[in-house]
Design brief:
Radius of gyration: 20 Å
Helix content: 25-40%
Order of helices and strands: HHEHEHEHEHEHEEHHHEEHEHEE
Number of helices: 12
Strand order of the largest sheet: 1-7-6-5-4-2-3
Largest sheet: 7 strands, mixed
Distance between the termini: 11 Å
CATH superfamily of the largest domain: Type I PLP-dependent aspartate aminotransferase-like (Major domain)
Strand content: 15-25%
CATH architecture of the largest domain: 3-Layer(aba) Sandwich
CATH topology of the largest domain: Aspartate Aminotransferase, domain 2
């Protein structure tokens, strides 16, 4: 089974839909919305479809932050929202993670009594660690009046974490983001969701969205949702490969942040840029660096042969070998949208 690729049903849906590419076919989006909302027990008006989850992330920041309403995020955390906050003129507030690598809710609240938007990515990118449902409830209960909590669940399917969708159903000041880019393997096909009260979604629409979607993306996403065992199978496979990687790192004495996602942070015990460059000479391309953690780099969990090739290259680099090699099973390309190194499949 190939992970991080569209499933067979999704690929077939794309091929079957391609001849209809000359028409908008809005009904496909309606079918997709009906499928998702019935699965999750949501009302259709609580859902908006976008080409990926980056647009609703940016639109949320633009909608709810300003020069007088701060943007609050974790550090290390996913950086895209900060770029949008610069456009809105908002003060950007970054708070360090807790000792267990979750979002520090108390610190976020204390640092920004003027907050317009709190961004919580769970599992977090890049650490792959969870922020509990109870912590998100605490944030909603104590946040400044009129502010919004944006919960990014791009990686939720890899974990055992509890979704915040129930808080949307309860009409809380929360927006949940979902994407088909991760466990569904549709990063280049582009389909994502914003899930919230209709009045919150209406503010996002001031900046775009709810327009024509690529019909191949909607067809593939619908087929993926209807695949009964897809998420469970991929979650199990990713977890098994991730744990084998962690076991190897532990045996070799390397430090890492335990993750519940398809990525984790690896401590290189030296400037991580040196390791990234040295790995590249071996045709193994690992992730990027967050300035707050300069000796850590982000690793994406691939297939078992790919992770074995990673281990071989990493061990050689850490032991000081400069001999370059080529690992055919780990021929990879970088996905610059968020710095991940996905397998070429």
């Amino acid at each position: 089974m190939k992970i991080l690729c569209p499933c067979d049903a999704a690929r077939k849906a794309i091929v079957d839909m391609a001849p209809q590419g000359g028409r908008y076919s809005y009904w496909l989006k309606e079918e997709f919305v009906k499928t998702f909302t019935e699965m999750e027990g949501l009302k259709p008006e609580y859902l908006r479809v976008f080409p990926g989850s980056s647009e609703p992330l940016h639109f949320s920041v633009l909608s709810f932050t300003s020069p007088t309403k701060s943007y609050v995020t974790a550090d290390p955390g996913y950086e895209a929202g900060m770029k949008a906050a610069k456009i809105s003129g908002a003060r950007i507030v970054k708070t360090t993670l807790t000792k267990t690598y979750s979002h520090d809710i108390k610190a976020m609240l204390a640092a920004a009594p003027d907050a317009g938007l709190f961004y919580v990515c769970t599992p977090n990118n890049p650490t792959g660690t969870m922020t509990s449902h109870s912590d998100i409830e605490q944030l909603l209960a104590a946040k400044p009046k009129g502010s919004v909590v944006l919960v990014d669940e791009a990686y939720i399917h890899f974990s055992d974490g509890v979704s915040a969708l129930d808080l949307v159903k309860a009409d809380q000041d929360v927006i949940v983001l979902r994407t088909f880019s991760k466990i569904y393997g549709m990063a280049g096909i582009r389909c994502g969701l914003a899930i919230a009260r209709p009045d919150l979604l209406a503010k996002l629409e001031n900046f775009g969205g709810w327009s024509a979607m690529p019909i191949t993306a909607v067809a593939a996403a619908t087929a993926s949702l209807k695949h009964e065992h897809l998420v469970a199978e991929r979650k199990q496979l990713n977890a098994a490969i991730r744990q084998k990687t962690f076991d190897w790192l532990s045996r070799q004495g390397y430090s890492y942040v335990p993750s519940e996602s398809n990525c984790f942070m690896l401590d290189t015990k030296r400037p991580a840029k040196e390791i990234i460059d040295a790995m590249a000479t071996r045709n193994v391309y690992i992730g990027r660096i967050w300035p707050v953690w300069p000796t850590y780099t982000r690793i994406t969990v691939g297939t078992q042969p790919e992770m074995e090739a990673f281990q071989e290259a990493f061990q050689a680099v850490m032991k000081g070998s400069t001999t370059t090699g080529y690992a055919p099973s780990l021929k990879r390309r970088r996905w610059y949208a968020d710095g991940q190194s996905w397998p070429t499949v």
